[in-house]
Predict the 3D structure of the following.
Amino acid sequence: MYVRPMATDVERVHHPLFARLYMRTATAAEDAYRGELLAGLSGTVIEVGAGHGLNFAFYPETVERVVAVEPESVLRAAAVEAAAKASVEVDVVEGVASRLPVADGSFDAGVASLVLCSVADQSQALAELRRAIRPGGELRFYEHVVSHGAVARGLQRLADATFWPRVAGGCHLTRDTLSAIERAGFAIQSSRRFGFSPGPPVPAIPHVLGIARRP
Ligand SMILES: C[S@@+](CC[C@H](N)C(=O)[O-])C[C@H]1O[C@@H](n2cnc3c(N)ncnc32)[C@H](O)[C@@H]1O
């Protein structure tokens, strides 16, 4: 299932300062969303951009095995520690979303949580998830997305064009990820949109959480 990538295949994702900041600030307020994201999953799962493994504790025991792909070395090392404490089998591997180191159709499900905002090429990342997930399998997603409001969207665009991707590990605030999932050939099965703020002074940012199916 796991195909070790050639060193030359791996685009460089190196954000050690962001990685340490994220590990300190990622909030338990999101735990309920992580639980909802992963509820009911079973079989084999590929999680892309798994970070330091905040989702691992929420995989139900019906999951046989998780391959957690993480390119950033600081986060990956922490993910290995989190995997050792998880109640399901989690193998943490090096890799990038645009070139997943796995065979075609080898997973029952894929998971993308707060990562499709950060990948360099979102459509390629989604094409790779589609390739890795078997026909009929599902993609679980939990992502922040572009605002519907003109003023908020303008501020998001300004942040994306200036400081935000630099301080937030390549993150972008203006991605229309739900549409991108559909464009990648997934059928949206369920999706809900809500605002979430990790706390003041950060305003509520729109998020989508749901399930898409690979036809
Ligand atoms: C905000 S963190 C989210 C981490 C984790 N998914 C979570 O829910 O806590 C963004 C993650 O995307 C990862 N990432 C960035 N570029 C990536 C890429 N090209 N391929 C895979 N993961 C990537 C980062 O290393 C980081 O782990």
About this structure: The pocket of S-adenosylmethionine is lined by residues 13, 22, 26, 48-51, 54-55, 70-72, 75, 96-98, 113-115, 118-120, 169-170 (CB under 6 Å). The two ends are 21 Å apart (CA to CA). The first helix runs from residue 16 to 25.
